[in-house]
Amino acid sequence: MLRIGHRGAAGYEPENTLRSIERAITHCVDFVEFDVQRTRDGYLVLLHDKRVDRTTNGSGYLADLSLAEVRKLDAGKGEIIPTLQEVLRLTSGRVGLMLEIIASGIAEQVCRMVHDEYEGTVIYASFLHTEVLQVRRLLPDARTLALIEGIPVHPTGFAEDAGVTHVGLAIDSLTKDFVRALQQGGYEVFAYTANDPRDIAWLRQLQVDGIISDYPDRV
Ligand code: G3P
After folding, report:
1. How many Å lie between the centroid of ligand 1 and the Cα of residue 146?
2. Residue to probe by mutation, ligand 1, list 4, 6, 208, most atoms within 8 Å of CB
3. Model pLDDT, residue 79
4. pLDDT score recorded for residue 134
5. Ligand 1 center to residue 138 CA distance, Å?
6. Which of 126, 130, 172, 187 is most buried by a 10 A CB count?
């Protein structure tokens, strides 16, 4: 059972910051999960929402801001929004990465930067299944993960279409049968986002392969 820190260790520190990622590492996570998108001038940075409003003191869409503008924002506890390059340099050789691609069209740039800056295991994840399919085309041996919320009519069809090795299921909509069908199809199953110890215990019972938590020490 793999322990995965959500947006670093977002239950303890401002999400998707270097501080949060360091905190996850102190909890001995197998993988640290974080979100990647691109600024107006083409830099890859960490942010979950399309807008900066919820997690910083700024306002507007990240894709409309330059890196210089993004770097002026306070992401919590005095942290700034990190670049992907900074995160790769911080984590290389120390912890696995579950890198969620938030914006469409950035897969190739992401893969190139990981290749240049990071040593270790990466799982490329996205709700945008064409992005992980693009990773598969670029890197035939990559670990890739299709995120999904809900249960499709065919339990493994979406994973086959996306050419992934892993799937990430929302805890609120996963069932034992769905998990089993995917595992029998050869996919590793991660569940997000489990914070309550009772949910974590239930997922352990279901024998999912990885649990994503804001409080990774609880896993
Ligand atoms: O990345 C895995 C899972 O945490 C997806 O949920 O909301 O963080 O994109 P979200």
Report:
1. 11
2. 6
3. 98
4. 98
5. 23
6. 126
